[in-house]
Amino acid sequence: MPLTLVLEQLLNGVQFGVMLFLMAAGLTLVFGIMNLVNLAHGSLYMMGAYLTVAAVQWSGNYLAGVALGLFATLLLGMLVEVVALRTLYDRDHLDQVLATFGLILFFNELVAILWGRTALDLARPDWLQGHIELFAGSRYPLYRAVVIGVGLAVAAALWYVVTRTRLGMLVRAGASNRSMIAALGVNIRLLYTFVFGIGAALAGLAGVMAGPIYAVQPGMGELILIQVFVVIVIGGIGSIRGAFAGALIVGVVDTLGRAFLKPLLGTVLSPAAADAAGPALASMLIYLLMAAVLALRPEGLFPSRGGQ
Amino acid sequence: MLTLLPPVAAALQEPFYLDLVRKVMIFAIAAASLNLILGYGGMVSFGHAAYLGIGGYAVGVLAFYGTTSGWVQWGVAIGASALVALAIGAVSIRTSGIYFIMITLAFTQMLYYLGISIEEYGGDDGMRIKARSDFSGLIDLGDPVAFYYLALVLMLACLFLVHRIANSRFGMVLRAAKSNEPRSRGIGFSPYAYRLVAFVIAGAMCGLAGAMFANHTSFITPEFMHWTRSGEIMFMVILGGIATTAGPLLGALVLLVVETLLAGWTEHWQAILGPLLVLSVLFFRRGLAGLMPGGKDG
User: Fold this and answer.
1) A124-128, A282-286, B67-71, B237-241: lowest mean pLDDT where?
2) Less packed terminus of chain B by CB within 10 Å, N or C?
3) A102 and B CB contact within 8 Å
């Protein structure tokens, strides 16, 4: 197996991983702070992509469109939180799962009504075309490299906000003791709405960046949502550090599994058996990983210290 | 009332209703099995469609290799579902709360992708089942009325079975562990084994529903195991009334009838069903069985 191919797939894995992280960060924050299971997070990912497509077409400028689309997703997230989710915080997880499941059905159909069921094309601008030279003889798509860069930058910014600013302090305090921070005079409901909006915008950003790589279509949020669940379960629910580690692990394992499991199995099994088992095993790999992690460490790799 | 439907439908020349109610009854079995672990046991399984798929694939795959005997097919469907439930349950029940929801979901996704990637059995597109299960000439599933009554009898048997289990000593332990785990440990029960047995029973029962559903549609696809299907079954349980005997039937009836009505009215029925779901969770917490006199037990 040529080394450059391995390296390229490794980078693809990291690229997928940072996208998963953008989703997982919002989801794990919402769960850690508000104790809310939000299945509709995948819908926000989808809405982010669609709103950005619309905004790019409307404004004619890629960056302005992206900014506008993300801002719209942030507002949409806050709207959803105020209208539907706010009453769910005190309910059990069962009600939360069902209500947000209803939201998914709604958003998928809404998108189908507004934009149709066929996949849309979110073209990357000219300046993001082309390749970069990693080292002599190895080229990597510029766009994917930019995705990795943006993802890492967001991760760093998030780390800074959560650990070094007043807002982050409130968020962490809210995660460890809700009623205490409310008693100290912090408007916790507003904080919740705001955090939810940020989570939505991060999911939207992931959706925007996924646009040119995967397809923008109704239901695009569900596949990635379940992978994101795997990520936060592996990482430990409520922990951003865990979400980051989990996202990179899942991204790399999934990508490498899809790329190399079939040829690897081919060296052990007959080619026909490898053909059959390879793809099946590759798509099951992250779920097996999750089952193994849960069996050994039921709280995930980085359990949140502030959990209730 | 359900016993009278076939002659009425025949008189009105509307076989469609027979078909719809048969589907309702099959899903009532699936929902009843979920009700056992979710309603009485407090285990929020978000992967119950897995057993529907396993039951369906047991019928489909055996038919593919020429075994059409219903005794064998349905037996394998139930047995295989029980085995898979044993494996999934053994790992999942170690966890609780949100982790349990997600791990059951993940296992079902695993099976879903397995279904998609096995090209021999149709992969993504699914596979037609050429002949319905054959019960040595006793019951002809090709006859809609006979199949209808079989579904009715099996559904009543399953509802009764879940009712009996829930009110047995075993069911009491299960419910005690749900309402207060430390206390039930304190009086000397280890919930794990009880939960696992309930999980396996529920899996086996849902496998039966899967075998019936495969015969109902004469078609199997990985969509049987899609996670939205798990969500639907879960919603039937909640809508009908959690931990009630008749709840699963009511929930399945209302959800499937509303779905069919909306689908007949507009292509975008899910845009209406979704908010209805949200509203019913927010404002309608006791379920349909709670509205009926004497409908609520336990």
Assistant:
1) A124-128
2) N
3) yes
Domain membership of residue A99 as a residue range: 3-217
Q: How many CB atoms lie within 10 A of CB A299?
A: 18
Q: What are phi and psi of B296, to 5 degrees?
A: -100, 120
- Segment B124-141, tens digit of pLDDT: 788 888 778 877 777 777
Question: Which residues 6+ apart lie within 8 Å of B207 measured at CB?
Answer: B51, B52, B54, B55, B58, B77, B78, B79, B80, B81, B82
Q: Which of A129-133, A187-191, A225-229 has the highest mean pLDDT?
A: A225-229
For residue B286, give both structure tokens: 């006791």
- Please say if the pLDDT value at position A289 is more than 80: yes
**pLDDT over 80 (residue B169):** yes
Spatial separation of the C-alpha atoms in residues B171 and B41, rounded to whole Å: 8
ipTM above 0.85, yes or no: no
In a domain, A53, yes or no: yes
- CB-closest option in B95, B105, B274 to A105: B274
Computed from CA positions of residues B75, B148, B164, B179, in that sequence, does the dihedral angle turn out positive or negative? Answer: positive
Q: Is B104 helix (H, G, I), strand (E, B) or coil?
A: helix
Within a domain: A231:
no
Q: Produce one character per residue of A154-188: b if its CB has 16 or more CB atoms within 10 Å, e if not.
A: bbeebeeebeeeeeeebbbbbbbebeebeeeeeeb
> Nearest CB to B277: which of A102, A222, A284?
A102
Chain A (247-306) residues lying within 8 Å, Cβ to Cβ, of chain B: 276, 279-280, 283-284, 287-288, 290-291, 294-295, 298
Note whether B271 contacts A93, CB cutoff 8 Å.
no
The predicted pLDDT at position B292 comes to 62
Q: Is B135 helix (H, G, I), strand (E, B) or coil?
A: strand
Total structural domains within chain A: 1
Mutate to test the interface with B, among A94, A103, A110 (most CBs of B within 10 A): A94
